[in-house]
Input
Amino acid sequence: MIVLSEILEGSSNGWRETGGIKWRAEIQGGTLVIKVICPRCGRVGNLVRANHRTRVGFRIVHSASGWGCQFGWTQPEYDSLRSIYYSVRKRGRF
Ligand SMILES: [Zn+2]
Output
């Protein structure tokens, strides 16, 4: 069982790993963000839910302009991204 404070403290020491994907949680401007090392392109990005109606899944946003990699539910990384996302989001009210 991981609590949010442990997630955040752990983030200063390095990266956690779930299903082979490295990630950590950070507070940026009062908002909790989940940083992951993208399993597709190797860049660091913010893990977010994909909002587009027809594309269920997650996005790893790599730039302020919103460019990033998309992971639909058919992709092998989806389950790991999902467990990372919910292990963080469930703990805090963000
Ligand atoms: Zn990527």
